[in-house]
Amino acid sequence: MVDKASGAGDPLERFRLDDKVVCITGGAAGIGAATAGLMTAAGATVVVLDRDGATAEATAAAIGGACAARAMDVANETDVTEGFAAIAERYGRIDVLVANAGINIRRTAMECSLDDWNAVLQVNLTGVFLTARTAARHMPERGGAVVTTASIMSFSGGGLYPNIAYMTTKGALVNLTRALAVEWAERGIRVNAVAPTWTRTAFIQPLLDNTELMGRLEAMTPMRRLAEPEEVAHAMLFLASDAASMVTGHTLAVDGGFLAQ
User: Fold this and answer.
1) Which of 21, 63, 170, 236 has the fewest C-beta atoms under 10 angstroms from its C-beta?
2) Is 161 an active-site residue?
3) Per the residue annotation, which of 84, 91, 129, 166 is the catalytic one?
4) CA-wise closest residue to 257 among 152, 161, 172, 100
């Protein structure tokens, strides 16, 4: 093991997750699945968590190695409490949580019903609070790491299409990340966020199907392309690893320069 203060030894070891127990919500597909595969390859024991338990199982089986799966609805407190307790009992602890589960209802403020609003809020914000709070209770005394999935829409009002509930929750998620980082720093639990640009996954399939809109999105991005799930997963791995041992309360944009404008 590399000494955190001296930085001696092989620096690449700092990016590995050997002997770490990692839980990834929304892990059955997209960014979550890419992150599960990468972290398993980096030596972690990974538990893929998703409301769709069957797809989570299929994803874990496809990844192989020390990758397991469990159905979990992050908006259900009982489900979250019981799920993390079972994981901690099986593996002895939880070292890393990637709070990645999210949903989107693309409607204008005038068309967004209270049920729509609450549905997005319960998953994108309350779900992160519930899973982070619960996972942290099972982290060892030496600390752990939480990585949340924010968005470039955490810092932008958008404008190309309606997205009021998603943007609001992702903006709040950045400050939830900061607040938890400050509160848990003395416990050695680092809390950071990754803010992806539009990423080529099924989550944005309706946008991908709109050729004109895709052209506008790419034109707005200095690197002139969308992100791939693996590119976001690389940032997740960094923030979860000891390579980021002095990083907490930070939101790392993976956006091709979008927010630099």
Assistant:
1) 63
2) no
3) 166
4) 152
Domain count for the chain: 1
Contact 207, 163 (CB under 8 A): no
Question: In the structure encoding, which two tokens stand for residue 182, read together?
Answer: 């400050």
Which residues span the domain enclosing 72? Answer: 16-250
d(CA 42, CA 40): 5
What pLDDT, on a 0 to 100 scale, did the predictor assign at position 9?
77
The CATH code of the domain that includes 206 is 3.40.50.720
Structural domain includes residue 1: no
- Within-domain flag for 235: yes
Q: For residue 11, what pLDDT is reported?
A: 84
Question: In this structure, is residue 113 part of a structural domain?
Answer: yes
d(CA 214, CA 188): 42
Regions of the chain with pLDDT less than 50: 1-2
Residues written for the chain: 261
pLDDT at 1: 38
In a domain, 202, yes or no: yes
d(CA 231, CA 8): 28
What pLDDT, on a 0 to 100 scale, did the predictor assign at position 5? 52
The pLDDT value recorded for residue 106 is 93
CA 81 to chain centre: 19
